[in-house]
Amino acid sequence: MDGEMEPFGKSMARAGIGKEGPEFVKRINTKLIERDFIKHLWTQLPPASNQALMSHPEVSRLIFLYRSNLFDVAVSTFLAKSLGHWNRVDPEEIVRPITITPPQIKRFCGELKADVLDQAKRVRASGKPVHLIRYEDLYSVAYRDRFLEVCNFLKLDGGNEAAIERLRPSEKYSGDETLARAIANWRSLEPLRAAPRLTVTLEGLDHT
């Protein structure tokens, strides 16, 4: 439990720790002492607890990571629920393809967009220095630049080439051929891939 990168997930419930109150604050303190940072999925906590985490006096900086391609998030989520894991889809594990309707995709993307922008507003309202990262940039040729930007933001030495090389991203996405096998109506969903990408900015809640 103590070595977790995401300390407010399932193990917290298993340990009988609530998502607010003195024990919750104590867990924040413990994790900051252990690692000097906390990796956190905002969906794991209610808004008030997320706000308590961000406003904690020992939290001096925030990195806000979000996915720009909402279509990919929707497909990944539906597949993960079907297969029971979030890893890349192995063609060999596809026993029965699932069906995802366009309305399901559109509804999911709409709800996710609203949630991301709401969380961005809360992060911005914290008054702490914030660095934004698009998830897709971590798996592109720009990953080196993003890594150095984070190091600079955190005032860390980012000049270690060996460390940067170890972070070289591996292929993260399932190919179209695999998706076509996993999703029975994949071809009918492809037109939705052209939807505008979500963009969050520090200057305001500008987005597309």
Number of helices, where a helix is a run of at least 4 consecutive DSSP H or I residues: 9
Globally, the shape reads: globular
* Percent of residues in helices: 40-55%
Rg for CA atoms: 19 Å
Low-confidence stretches: none
Mean pLDDT: 81
Strand content: under 5%
Largest sheet: 2 strands, parallel
Q: How many distinct beta strands?
A: 2
Strand order of the largest sheet: 1-2
Structural class: mainly alpha
Measured between the Cα atoms of the first and last residue, the distance is 39 Å
Q: Helix and strand string, N-terminal first? A: HHHEHHEHHHH
Summarize the structure.
With 208 residues, the chain is mainly alpha-helical.
Structure explained in plain terms:
The chain has 208 residues and is mainly α. The chain contains 9 helices and 2 strands. The chain has a two-stranded parallel ribbon. Helix 4 (70-83) packs across helix 5 (102-125). The radius of gyration is 19 Å and the shape is globular.
How is the secondary structure organized here?
Elements: H1 10-14, H2 22-35, H3 47-54, E1 62-66, H4 70-83, H5 102-125, E2 130-134, H6 143-153, H7 161-166, H8 176-182, H9 186-189
Parallel strand pairs: 1-2
